[in-house]
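Hi V.,

You were right to ask for the full record rather than a summary. Here it is.
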Amino acid sequence: MSSRITRSFERLAASGRKALIPFFTAGHPSRESTVPIMQALATHGADIIELGIPFSDPMADGPAIQRSSEKALALGVGLGDVLDDVAAFRRGNADTPVVLMGYANPIERMGGQHFIERASQAGVDGVIVVDYPPEESAEFARSAREHGVDPIFLLAPTTSEKRIDQILSMASGYVYYVSLRGITGGTIDIDDVVRRVSMIKARTALPVGVGFGIRDGETARAVSQVADAVIIGTRMIQVLEDGEAAGAAARAGEFIAGIRAALDGAPRS
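Predicted structure:
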């Protein structure tokens, strides 16, 4: 049976649409806001939700996402809480895929196999572990797939073609192309993204999502001409920070609805 992620991409492709994947950190801006934000994102146009696992030393994340992790950790939010939030979301939403994104340390503390089992039970559909080297991830990826969780890997502008092929051999669900040579939140070179994503798509049947540097409808439209999905993280975090925590879900829904409208209004390649 195909995964929720695969089915989502298949439905979108059949209607000529591209996937919209917002990212935010669990427990930010408050412990109570995570599930309502997820619900608002799903209602207003998110096709897949990437949920960040708070971590104290996120090497790939810019200042906004680092702040969100620091705040969540200060509130006592850990990996177990993140899984509980996914399970709570899943009780009211059986369709929208959820992908956890984080770093190895919290997963290793829980135990990789135990994490995969709990994630599967909670209703997680995919997992991105930023600092798991592909060369050491085969067993983790195999276990994830056995439990119905897609192992999703990052590709960077500096990733060699040989390494791309190695990573693609283990990946499922979709591939995450990091558009920047650096941390999240910078400015992307659209022409370079087009070249690199076209090369990746020639090597795999998996959908390719692009993240890092997508901040608005215009950038999302441009990226969607070559990518199968656009991933918005830093700007999503900033929207959640821009006001009281009690209004975070409403702000998230309004923002993502605008990006969805921009994507759906774009001419399709």
